[in-house]
Amino acid sequence: MTIAIFTGSLIGAIALGVPIAFALLICAVALMVLQGNIDTTILSQKIIEGADSFPLLAIPFFMLAGELMNAGGISKRIVTFALTFVGHLRGGLGFVAIFASVLMAAISGSAAADAAAIGALLIPMMRRAGYDVPRSAGLIAAGGVIAPVIPPSIGLIVFGVIANVSIGKLFLAGIVPGLMMGISLLFAWLWVARRDKAKVLPRQDWGARLRAGIDGIWALVMPAGIIGGLKFGIFTPTEAGVVACVYAFLVGAFVYRELPLRQLHPIIVAAAKSTAVIVFLIATALISAWLITLSELPSQVEAMLSPFMDNKILLMAVIMVIVVIVGTALDFAPTLMILTPVLMPVIKQAGIDPVYFGVLFIMNNAIGLITPPVGIVLNVMCRVANISMGDLMKGLWPFLWAELIVLFLLVLFPDLVMVPLDWLTHR
Q: In the UniProt record, which is one GO cellular component term (predicted)?
């Protein structure tokens, strides 16, 4: 009965076009009605408690850092640096897209922003060089979804807050899976582009590469600084957001001099609007999470999954399949907000490490950003490349399958996540 009321109220509200945050509030009220205790005071108090979290301060700073990075020329220099090394290879611009996607993922943490920035720079070049545009756009879209996995990841921050899991450990655990996603795209691109007739760029000499490296050094050391600071305990994830924000501003304004001070106001406003949406979603999700716990909905879900509870790998595989299916209908944030409080008690009961689950759960949700019909990154790339959704999907499939294979490899071999985490944590 509880599951029916929860899913019915949620799906009904979404079907009527109610924004996700308010749909979650409707779910909360429905669960209160089921328990026979409607109290608006509790609702308002829980909203305030949901937003009153120190780790959430990282979100506005990382959002602002991403905006400053794109406006200050950091993204452009990352692409230029990659071009000098691999632009002359067959399919070289695809390799540039993959390298830039991984590096920018370690700076901004936003899939849509990364895909839009890289697409705007590379799609015109790939079109002129004779690359298949839908395939190129599909590669860049698939590269963009690495951003929520590699730190600093806004998705991992949100999951850590809702699930009460160490954000620092989530950040470190996301490094290897994110790199594996990039490697999978590399092999997929090698396969699909082996017979490509596209033009290659002239080979750059080492002088040009050195100049591009010197020009881009400020952009290239940023990910290493953030991850190194987290690993050695120099700053917390929240403080890392402040560091990234200040660094992106100083480099863009005073080193590259592509960030006029007059642009700061619209950049800050854009970051503030995005942050407000995310934090309000989290606040309403935590109300639902609290009521989900009171209504014992997780125990009912656990009973449904009981045939798989004795086998951690099989249980994870079943959950990942469910999340993949949900991700085709819901966007990243709603899936994260709705399923985290439902699944976490099941994960703990089964004895699965919450950090390991969190990384795979976020990876799965990130892949949902490029699954039709809802995937927001798909819509971004359609606009950037000026192609239809149908054409984009034709080019995307090899890369989507490559990332799904990585996901289920990590389900089968958890040590690929946990062993590097132990090394990074204790060395």
A: plasma membrane
